[in-house]
Structures are given as structure tokens and as C-alpha cells.
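Bench log. Compound arrived from synthesis this morning; before running ITC I wanted a structural hypothesis for how tryptophan sits in the protein. Inputs:
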Amino acid sequence: MAMTTGGRGNWSGRTGFILAAAGSAVGLGNIWGFPNQVASNGGAAFLIVYTLCCFLVGYPVMVAELSVGRATAKNPVGAFRKLAPGSFIMPLIGFWGVIVGMAILAFYNVIAGWTLSYVLEEFAQFFGSDTTAALLGATDGGIKSAIFALVFMLGTITIVAGGVSGGIERATKTMMPLLIGILLLMTVYVLTRDGSGEGLRQYLLPDFSKINTGLILSALGQAFFSLSLGMGALITYGSYLDRKMNIPQAAGFVTLADFSIAFLAGLLILPAMYVAQSRGVQIVDDSGALIQSTGLVFNVLPELFHQIGGITGLVVGVMFFFLLTIAALTSTISLLEVPVSYLVDEHGMNRKKASILMGAIIGAISLIIAFDPSLIGLFVTIFNNFGLPVGGLMICLFVAYYWKTEKALKEMEDGYEDISGSAFASIWPIFVKFICPLLIALVFLNTLGVI
Ligand code: TRP
């Protein structure tokens, strides 16, 4: 394949890019975050609003990020430098993305480390070594959390150091089909168990009275995180795109893939909770709310697997945590790639050195968080809930009012020749100029408690 962007690397083709970008999108946000949000936000009502957020807000922003990336063939900082020559302010949007990406990766590593240690915990449980199982199953701060977070960081460094097509693309090409296979198998298994019907009802029968501004804003935040938007990950991935690629279509595939996997994860987790309940596992807390988050993934579900018991329990448990681990790994890759591409492009560092240096810095922050996981909440508030919407808003405003949507559409002509005159060309700018910024601004103001 031709190297159209010099020595930076390139995707080998359309499938490679789509799998890598979908791998970035599909992560703990889909398989853990989304079902949790559905459970705590009134089931199907959340699902409907989330669907709209993905396609009406997420998709247009994804197209914007990919166009900026391909037009400049640069990391986020370099991309804004190139499109706004001489400006001091604009590249800050890219810097913000690099910082937010590093911070998200720092805590993501710790959670991903837990999912990895639970693969082993399931084996320890099966072989009856309770003390080992308890040690591996701990999700409090300490040496065990630290070791697994570092193992995860090392795995990510190894893949990113391998380059765009040789490392990232090759890894995601094997992991994504595996992930989908496991997810489908597990969903079929859970849906055929007693008790799953109630979970399915909660998930699919909407109660429209539950839709309120809080729910809409959570859905939008979740869509942003899940689609990996707002910090330039897709500017970076877009920078390795071939000029023959149809950007609106590729973004459509990625959005659809991410949405479908979240939807499938919902079909697995919500019914699994009720299967667990029918087997005597407690799924509501003292206040009567469904147990969520760490409690759900690391307590309720493992209890279900142990209830199932025997070799089936082992297989199901190991498969589930392995699924979470690979989903997390395809995402941590994209989070590390952003700061690495920055060092490679802007400081002329070679990729291997850049991966190790950035990995070491981020790993050090992960260590601090691994010893005090209560910091995760703080990081989520600052970088997910605040950092991503702010980044997304700035990217939108930049494309809409500085670079201009006409130029972005011109960039998209390569790979989509008859774009001018298409419905896409008349609708997309409206979303980038008005609808997306307005909705993102609302999320942001809500996060700040202003509305
Ligand atoms: N989308 C991933 C998930 O759902 C997380 C992620 C990876 C991410 N890269 C990102 C989030 C970039 C925001 C920005 O788990």
C-alpha cells in the first residue's frame, strides 16, 4: 500500500481502518458503561435517547474529526497548527486533547487491569483456592491493582510501538472478531437462561415518562465517550487515512459498529442481572436501586458465574472478563496513539521511543491511581465529563467557523466524488454549525451545575 503520508504510517485499507476505529470506540464504555447507564436511567427510555445521540450528534462530530485528520495528516496539535497557521490559540485544542487522552488512559489502565486480573480470579475460584481468588478479585487500591495496571500499559505500549498497520491494525484485526464472537455466544447463553425475560423487558420496553434533561445529558456524554470523540483520537486515526476513503461512509460504519456492540452488551448484561437474581444473587442495593458499576461487574456477575458453577461457570466467567479485557485493549491503543503521534510528528521522536516515554509517564500516573482508586471518580469528572465535551465543542466550532464546513466537504470529495449536491452536504453542516455545539454546550453547562 502506498505511504501517502510520508513515514508516519497508514492503514492498509478500508477494513483495517474501520476495525481499528471501531476497536477504539468499543471498550469498557460499551460493555460496562452503557448497560450500567441503561440500568440506572430507566431502561429502554435511555436506549432510545442514546441512539439519537450517537447518530445525530456523535456521527457528525466523528466526520468532522476524521476530515481534520485526513486533511492535515497530522496529530491533533499539528493538525490545528496546519489549519490555523500562526495561531497560538488553535493548537491548544489539540494540546487539550493530548492531555485529556493521557489522563483518561491513566485511570482506564487501572480498570482494565482489574478486568484482566478477574480472568485469573475465575480460574482460582474454579480450582478452589479462595485466598488467591480473593487476592485477584480485590478492586481496592494496592500492589495487585498496580501490577495489573502496569501489565496493561505494557501491552498497549507494545502494540502502539509496532506502528499503525503493523501494530494497531494487526492487533485490532484479530481482537475485534474475537470480541464479537464472544459477545454473541454469551448473549445467546444468557438469553436462554431462566429469569432473563425480565431484564429484556426492562431493556426494550420504553417508559417515556422517564425521559428528562438529566437522562438526555447522560446519554450524550455516554455517546461521546463511547465513540471516542472530543480529544482528537479520530483526528489521529483520520490522519492515517487513504485519500480514496469515503469519510462519511467510514464514519457511518464506525458509529454503527460501536452502537451495535453497546446494544448487544445491553442484551447481555441486563438479562444477566435478572438471571442472577432468579438464582438468589442480590442485584439491588439497600435503597432498592440496581447495583451498578464496579459492584455490578466485579460482584454481581462473578457471583452469577460462581452460581452456575463447574466447568460452564468457569468458561462463562473467563470468557466475560476476557471480552472486557480485549475491548479495553483496543481502546487503550487509541488513547496512547494520540500523545505518541504528537511526539512523533511535532518532536521528531521515533515511534518506539515515543511509545515507551509516553507509556512510562502515563504508567506512573496509573500507579498513583492504582494505590488510591478513589481518584478514578475525580478523573472521570474532570476529563470525561468536562474534558471531552469541551474538546468536542471546540473541534465543532473550529470546523464550523474557522476552517469552515465548505473546506471540510471539499476534503471529503476525495473518496466521495459526488458529495456536492448530496443530502449529506446540505445536512451535515447544519449539525456541525448549530445542533451539535448547542447540545454539547448544554451537557457542559449541566456538568458545571449551571443548568
Ligand atoms: N471509547 C472507548 C470506550 O468506550 C474509550 C476511549 C478510547 C475513548 N479512546 C477514547 C474515549 C478517546 C474518549 C476519547 O471505552
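What the model suggests: Residues 24-25, 27-30, 104, 225-226, 228, 231, 233, 331, 334-335, 388 surround tryptophan (CB under 6 Å). Residues 11 and 165 are 5 Å apart (CA to CA).
ITC booked for Thursday regardless.
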